[in-house]
Design brief:
The structure is a single chain. It is built from 7 helices and no strands. By secondary structure, the protein is an all-alpha fold.
């Protein structure tokens, strides 16, 4: 059974989301990759990945799921068919520039991650965080 709060949230998002006719054409198609800029030089740290996880938890997980499998009540309720990021093949054909452009500009029903909400290096850390979802967990060191 769907959580009533999730249904209410989905309804609010659906009602207040701009209609497809009012959106710019760039959102109807996959956005063009962002030109190569300094965002490529990001090196993840424990702190930057913790921030990426927080941003993901707030902005992405409601549709894409805590583990990135795309199987959430909200996604189902909105009839979204999202890629399963726990499967390595799902992101294999996407470059970091492709993912950066999608996150920054939005795609279809996915809203854009505005620069005021997440800086370029934070978006790149979200991409690193998302790509780690398809990697098997690292084993704890033997004692």
């Amino acid at each position: 059974m769907l959580n009533p709060m999730m249904l209410l949230t989905a309804f609010i998002l659906f009602v207040f989301a701009p209609s497809p006719a009012s959106r710019p054409m760039a959102q109807d198609a996959t956005p063009a990759p962002t030109p190569a800029v300094a965002h490529k030089a990001v090196k993840p740290t424990a702190e930057s990945q913790a921030k990426a996880k927080k941003l993901y938890d707030v902005d992405c997980s409601m549709c894409h799921g805590d583990n990135g499998n795309g199987k959430t009540d909200l996604a189902t309720g909105m009839a979204l068919k999202l890629a399963d990021w726990t499967n390595p093949a799902s992101l294999a054909g996407k470059t970091d520039d492709d993912l950066f452009a999608i996150i920054r500009n939005g795609k279809d029903k996915m809203p854009a991650e505005a620069e005021g909400r997440a800086k370029d290096d934070e978006v790149m850390n979200i991409i690193i965080y998302i790509r780690k979802m398809s990697q098997p967990p690292t084993a704890a060191p033997a004692k």
